[in-house]
């Protein structure tokens, strides 16, 4: 589901960027037979300016989603590499650098270890621990 939103955001950004290429400010200089020069400058319309702002916002959101996905992948990889943390039993979600851990561990020490691993991962701002202990 998150991958679909990321792909949709990226496609939206690309489509908007392609449309904005034609909306740039353009200056045309024309030489007349009488030897004078005429210059015309066309600025983007208000709608084009709004579209440019929307594109910038969409690009930021797509970038944020990519960063969050990378953080999730790093945390999950560390969990799977650790022999004590049951990485397959823990769901990792990231939103704006905040990692949420859902699932279970076989003892309290492994819950603490999972939280510690997540907190030590680059890009993680904080960790929400929703893990339970199941023997």
Overview of the structural elements:
This protein has helices spanning 2-20, 46-81, 108-119; strands at residues 26-31, 37-42, 90-95, 98-105, 126-133. Helix content is 50%, strand content 25%. A hairpin with a 2-residue loop joins strand 3 and strand 4 (98-105). The mean pLDDT is 78.
Q: Which parts are unreliable, with pLDDT below 50 for 5 consecutive residues or more? A: none
Instruction: Tell me the Rg in angstroms.
Output: 25 Å
Distance between the termini: 31 Å
Give the biggest beta sheet: 3 strands, mixed
Query: How confident overall, as mean pLDDT?
Result: 78
Quaternary status: single chain
| Beta-strand content | 25-35%
Order of helices and strands: HEEHEEHE
Count of distinct strands: 5
Q: If strands are numbered along the chain, what order do they take across the biggest sheet? A: 3-4-5
Query: Structural class of the secondary structure composition?
Result: alpha+beta
What would you call the shape?
Answer: rod-shaped
| Proportion in helices | 40-55%
- Helical element count? 3
Compact overview of the structure:
The chain is α+β, with helices and mostly antiparallel strands. The protein has helices at 2-20, 46-81, 108-119; strands at 26-31, 37-42, 90-95, 98-105, 126-133.
Give the secondary structure arrangement, pairings included.
Elements: H1 2-20, E1 26-31, E2 37-42, H2 46-81, E3 90-95, E4 98-105, H3 108-119, E5 126-133
Parallel strand pairs: 4-5
Antiparallel strand pairs: 1-2, 3-4
Helix pairs in contact: 1-2
């Amino acid at each position: 589901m998150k991958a679909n939103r990321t792909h949709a955001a990226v496609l939206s950004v690309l489509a908007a960027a392609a449309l904005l290429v034609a909306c740039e400010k353009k200056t045309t200089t024309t030489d007349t037979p009488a030897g004078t020069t005429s210059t015309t400058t066309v600025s983007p319309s208000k709608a084009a300016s709004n579209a440019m702002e929307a594109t910038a916002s969409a690009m930021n959101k797509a970038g944020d989603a990519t960063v969050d996905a990378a953080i999730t992948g790093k945390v999950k990889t560390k969990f799977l590499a650790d022999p004590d943390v049951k990485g397959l039993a823990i769901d990792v979600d990231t939103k704006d650098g905040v990692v949420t851990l859902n699932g279970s561990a076989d003892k309290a020490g492994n819950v603490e270890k999972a939280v510690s691993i997540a907190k030590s991962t680059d890009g993680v701002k904080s960790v929400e621990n929703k893990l339970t202990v199941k023997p």
